[in-house]
């Protein structure tokens, strides 16, 4: 059964997903290093993301989110939105940083 509600998730080390429907990842708190495989035309699938940034994840892509704290006790909280829960018309991908 497909997910229909967004989930807020604390990420202590690493979190991974391979969704069967489109989702949006949003950084709710902290800073993350995100690897998204299966993106067309990208040489580097890595993204540095901070609070408020969103990334669209298509069905079949593999997503890995790692807590990338600036300070030892910084927490990372993500919100994982299934396609049905997205109310914004379009969420931009963050810029790719090498």
Describe this protein's structure.
With 98 residues, the protein is mostly beta strands. It has no helices and eight strands. The protein has strands at 7-11, 14-17, 23-29, 31-37, 46-50, 54-57, 62-67, 76-82. The strands form two sheets. A four-stranded antiparallel beta sheet has the order 1-8-3-6, with no helix packed on it. A four-stranded antiparallel beta sheet has the order 2-7-4-5, with no helix packed on it. A hairpin with an 8-residue loop joins strand 4 (31-37) and strand 5 (46-50). The radius of gyration is 13 Å and the shape is globular. The N and C termini lie far apart (37 Å). Residues 86-98 have low confidence and may be disordered.
Class per helix and strand makeup: mainly beta
Quaternary structure of the protein: single chain
Q: Spell out the helices and strands N to C.
A: EEEEEEEE
* Side-by-side strand order of the widest sheet: 1-8-3-6
The total of helices stands at 0
Task: Let me know the average pLDDT.
Answer: 82
Task: Describe the structure in brief.
It contains no helices and 8 strands. It has 98 residues and is mostly beta strands. The strands form 2 sheets. The protein has a 4-stranded antiparallel beta sheet with strand order 1-8-3-6, with no helix packed on it. Strands 2-7-4-5 form a 4-stranded antiparallel beta sheet, with no helix packed on it.
Name a few traits of the molecule.
98 residues, mainly beta, 4-stranded antiparallel beta sheet, 8 strands, globular, disordered C terminus
Q: Mind sketching the topology for me?
A:
Blueprint: E1 7-11, E2 14-17, E3 23-29, E4 31-37, E5 46-50, E6 54-57, E7 62-67, E8 76-82
Antiparallel strand pairs: 1-8, 2-7, 3-6, 3-8, 4-5, 4-7
């Amino acid at each position: 059964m497909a997910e229909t509600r967004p989930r807020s998730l604390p990420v202590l080390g690493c979190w991974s997903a391979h969704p069967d429907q489109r989702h949006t990842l949003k950084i709710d708190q902290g800073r993350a290093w995100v690897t998204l495989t299966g993106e067309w035309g990208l040489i580097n699938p890595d993204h540095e993301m901070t609070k408020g940034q969103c990334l669209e994840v298509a069905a079949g892509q593999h997503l890995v989110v790692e807590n990338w704290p600036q300070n030892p006790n910084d927490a990372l909280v993500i919100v994982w939105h299934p396609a049905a829960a997205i109310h914004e018309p379009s969420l931009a991908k963050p810029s790719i940083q090498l």
